[in-house]
Amino acid sequence: MKLSKTSSNTQHFYQEELKKLKEAGNLRTLPEVIHDGKWVLSGEQRMLNLSSNDYLGLATDTALRDEFLGSADNRDLLFSSSSSRLLTGNFHIYTQLERLLADLFGTESALTFGSGYHMNSGILPAITDSRTLILADKLVHASIIDGILLSSGYSIRYRHHDYRILETLIQKYHKNYSRIIIVTESVFSMDGDVTPLQTLVELKNKYPNVYLYVDEAHGIGVRGAHGLGVAEEQGCIKDIDFLCGTFGKALGSIGAYVVCRERIRNYLVNKVRPFIFTTALPPVNIAWTKFLLERLSQWDDRRQWLAEASSRLRTCIREMGCECTSESQIVPLTLGASEKAIEKAAEMQRKGFYVLPVRPPTVPEGTSRLRFSLTAAITPEEISRLIQTLKETQNK
Ligand code: PMP
């Protein structure tokens, strides 16, 4: 078949773009990964999965799954909601989950979303107008950046964790805007460092009409006395205006939530487009999330072991002479060029550790890295073997 001129130009455009990505070492392909959660299988080889967000090992805990399916009520649940929540998708299990979230966090209400991506890309445009200024940490996740891009507010990204600059910006602009929204993550997804939320709370309280939006995607489940995240650990749940998190990581499910004031929830139900114009998550998923959330406070032993294993890996990386600002289960080994990260990941995989390279645009240019994402399912022997292998392969 002969291609029209427009169509062949388009093909050329795609080819050129793919070529550029390849030349920069940033071409991505979709790996088909066979794994049972803990082990990734490739032919005869079995590799320890160090790239999972199942931080507490809940998603693959067969005993929990059996308990959940042991209840006839759960077995009867639908696998599709077949509608948006504003039509016929708002099953009673949603009310139960959102009530549970609000009770756990001690807030007035909660609202759930299809995913963390829906949540961030939906809430931020909904809560801003042309008189709103968004001040976001430089390293926030792509879903937050997309939310900012879709919003009609003005935005500035401040240097990562630089609260002096942040305050200068607030002082400079707070009279020009009707509202300022500070946006941050609690545990940063690529560096694993933790935000001093209390400092941000103190800062926002110094000025009128400054609000705080926190994404706890990597903090929920793993931090805090009851697993409610960094905000719980730092004692500031009630001081955060929009406290958000996801269910797809430590909580072993799918979806996301914001806990907030009742009137904010009512507003979001009316304004968040990725909430309104999408099919609600299946009731069976919502029930599974609720089932896990009800047990969250029980898993302190898993949280403690995860913290200890992560601390051992961070110490190893620092002893290797690499800078590592992580304070969590996300532990990067920054290598610089994309090629270096790709080679090192391949080497670790040959040695039985499934760790992946992270490259631009996910991380800034020149900071390609291996991103170790530990889970509580790792054993003391496995973490020792990982550390030993990293040391043995250093500078090879
Ligand atoms: N926020 C952060 C900080 C994340 O790291 C991610 C996922 N990597 C998301 C939001 C998106 O969450 P979800 O996977 O549920 O869409």
TrEMBL record:
Recorded superkingdom: Bacteria
GO term, biological process aspect, one: biotin biosynthetic process
Its EC number(s): 2.3.1.47
Database matches in PROSITE patterns: AA_TRANSFER_CLASS_2
Enzyme class of the recorded protein, top EC level: transferase
Pathway: Cofactor biosynthesis; biotin biosynthesis; Lipid metabolism
UniProt keyword Transmembrane helix present: no
Named cofactor requirement(s): pyridoxal 5'-phosphate
Keywords for this protein: Biotin biosynthesis, Pyridoxal phosphate, Transferase
A Gene Ontology molecular function term of the record: 8-amino-7-oxononanoate synthase activity
Known catalytic reactions: 6-carboxyhexanoyl-[ACP] + L-alanine + H(+) = (8S)-8-amino-7-oxononanoate + holo-[ACP] + CO2
Span of domain Aminotransferase class I/classII large: 47-390
Subunit structure as annotated in this protein's UniProt entry: Homodimer.
Family, per entry: Belongs to the class-II pyridoxal-phosphate-dependent aminotransferase family. BioF subfamily.
Entry protein name: 8-amino-7-oxononanoate synthase
Species whose genome carries this gene: Phocaeicola coprophilus DSM 18228 = JCM 13818
